UniProtKB/TrEMBL annotation:
Keywords: Signal, Transport
Family assignment from sequence similarity: Belongs to the bacterial solute-binding protein 5 family.
Superkingdom field: Bacteria
Protein name (Swiss-Prot/TrEMBL): Peptide/nickel transport system substrate-binding protein
Organism, scientific name: Lentzea flaviverrucosa
Keyword Transport belongs to the record: yes
Signal peptide location: 1-20
Domain Solute-binding protein family positions: 78-449
A GO-annotated cellular component: periplasmic space
GO biological process: peptide transport
């Protein structure tokens, strides 16, 4: 999932000059204690630092902290943040947490267990911000201890509650009656950074001098607005950004082509065509038919897409949505395709559509009840890799009688359509959860509890997928701790159902490429030291990177 941004008010022809204008300095003269990053967001930055809002631009980890940091890049013990210790009771219904003492909010107020209780209560009673399906009841025992009680064994809630809920200041947020829509223009947090200057084309975070972990050596993080992937490439050449996550030409030779920069690419996101799949919840279009979704799945030449759009940085993807190779041991033997085929099967796609009552017209496009099988797929303007993937796919699918038309939107328009279900298809990535376990992907993107009717915000089951068999398997998985061999039968059940329905049509496991200025800053994550997943848009991982970096020579 690469985010992209329009570059001030200029076109690409004046890119380098515009980049310098946006950042307020050139690559050569800017202060070395300022880290300049490009998250890729398209369109002007919209002021929103609410970490629970689907359109927030920053905040998780940098301004607002979780209780612990769970590193999905490698499976190790969680890092204490606002919490220092935690433990379960014998049957997994009660989670006890010890909190860090001596922490203050950025406005000087003391952080206490009441803030944790307030946050967890807010999430539990506000479906629009409760993307984890949290149902616990929280008690503040004293200033540094809380106990969360669950109605049933809930081991798998641990990493979500501890690592994915951002603790908010009660004395501020109790005044906000609708936390899901609060834009939080003046954020008050406990994190290593505070909001500095905000403009539509650029904003800054400045280091928190009273941060409990010590003030970061990076005194300022500047987020730039650019116009897309090509803009990021040119900014790297100009030396005007220090970190971006996104594709660049000939990434194998990054150190030669961009002196001072290095790159690391790791598998994380599962690239897919998101479908608004559920007609009962208001989705409209031929994509609500599972036969159409499966035909598109078989009509893809993934080898060609990987080559033309992703420089062969992608890899095979399972239709059961276990992240490979990380979850290879959990890959179900009951799947028809353990991995999505890398080449198209036109005969299979045609058979699926014909059996479902579609008839090919004189123009070569299938139709049913007089309606051609023509679909619009939304993509963010500037996402050159995804746009190329869709242009390639549109040609491939004509071979199976399906017409798709890419529609480029600003990130804000695209995100709003995604959240409200106002799309037929869109391209995005299914993300991972707070711990290296596919349970979290399933509970986020495939659970009835995390979706909503079209027109209402779904977070993040954007496809509106609802399946009682999957819901029941998720409920059983939630009751058993990681590593329990009894879990596999439930993984099998879920994977088989996902392959049948395909509400998110698998494309590839995306290799996430990161380019960083190794000459100007030290302390970056590497394949030998993956202390956080190295993606500038991955939260809260990016805050771990910001806090560890140091200007070179310091």
């Amino acid at each position: 999932m690469f985010l992209h941004k329009r570059l001030c008010a200029f076109g690409l022809t004046v890119l380098v000059a515009a980049t310098a204008a946006c950042s307020g300095s050139t690559g050569a003269s800017r202060s070395r204690d300022t880290l300049v990053v490009y998250t890729g967001q398209a369109g002007d930055f919209q002021l929103n630092f609410n970490p629970y809002a689907p359109t927030q631009i920053e905040g998780p980890g940098t301004i607002y902290e979780p209780l612990f940091f769970f590193n999905i890049a490698k499976d190790g013990p969680p890092k204490p943040m606002l919490g220092t210790e935690f433990g379960w009771n014998a049957d997994g219904t009660e989670l006890s947490v010890t909190l860090r003492d001596g922490v203050t909010w950025s406005d000087g107020e003391k952080f206490t267990a009441e803030d944790v209780k307030f946050t967890l209560d807010m999430v539990a009673k506000t479906p629009a911000v409760n993307k984890t399906g949290f149902k616990g009841t929280t008690t503040a025992v004293d200033d540094t201890h809380v106990v969360v009680k669950f109605p049933e064994p809930s081991y798998m809630d641990g990493p979500q509650v501890l690592g994915q809920l951002w603790i908010m200041p009660e004395h501020v947020w109790k005044n906000y009656p609708t936390p899901a829509t609060e834009v939080n223009a003046s954020p008050v947090g406990t994190g290593p950074f505070q909001l500095g200057e905000f403009k539509a084309q650029s904003f800054t975070l400045r280091s928190n001098p009273k941060y409990w972990g010590g003030e970061p050596a990076v005194k300022q993080v500047r987020y730039l607005s650019l116009s897309g992937n090509q803009a990021g490439v040119d900014a790297l050449k100009a030396g005007s950004i220090d970190w971006q996550t996104g594709p660049i030409p000939d990434i194998k030779d990054v150190e030669k082509n961009y002196p001072g920069y290095k790159a690391v690419t790791l598998p994380l996101n599962q690239v897919a065509l998101f479908t608004c799949s559920n007609a009962q919840l208001g989705c409209q279009g031929a994509q609500t038919d599972p036969a159409v979704r499966r035909a598109i799945y078989h009509g893809m030449n993934r080898t060609q897409i990987n080559s033309l759009a992703f420089q062969n940085t992608g890899s095979e993807m399972s239709p059961g949505y276990t992240l490979q190779p990380r979850d290879s041991a959990l890959l179900s033997s009951k799947l028809t395709d353990r991995m999505a085929p890398m080449n198209a099967d036109v005969a299979k796609a045609t058979e699926l559509l014909t059996s479902a009552g579609y008839v090919k017209g004189a123009d070569g496009v299938f139709a049913k009840d007089g309606k051609p099988l023509a679909l619009t797929v939304k993509v963010v303007a500037g996402w050159t890799d995804y746009i190329t993937a869709l242009e390639t796919l549109s040609q491939q699918l004509l071979q199976i009688g399906v017409k798709i038309t890419p529609q480029q939107l600003s990130w804000n328009e695209w995100a709003d359509a995604r959240g409200r279900g106002q799309f037929e298809l869109l391209i995005d990535s299914v993300e991972q959860g707070p711990a290296p376990d596919p349970y979290y992907t399933y509970s986020y993107f495939f659970s009835t509890a995390t979706t909503a009717p079209v027109g209402q915000a779904a977070n993040p089951n954007f496809s509106r997928f609802s399946n009682p068999v999957v819901d029941a398997a998720l409920a059983e998985l939630k009751k058993t701790d990681r590593g329990n061999p009894a879990r596999q039968s439930h993984y099998d059940t879920i994977q088989v159902e996902l392959e049948k329905s395909m509400p998110y049509i698998p494309v590839l496991t995306g290799g996430v490429p990161n380019e960083y200025n190794d000459k100007a800053f030290t302390g970056w994550p590497t394949k030998d030291d993956l202390y956080a997943f190295p993606a500038v848009w991955k939260r809260p991982d990016a805050s771990q990177v910001y806090a560890k970096l140091k200007p070179a020579g310091s």
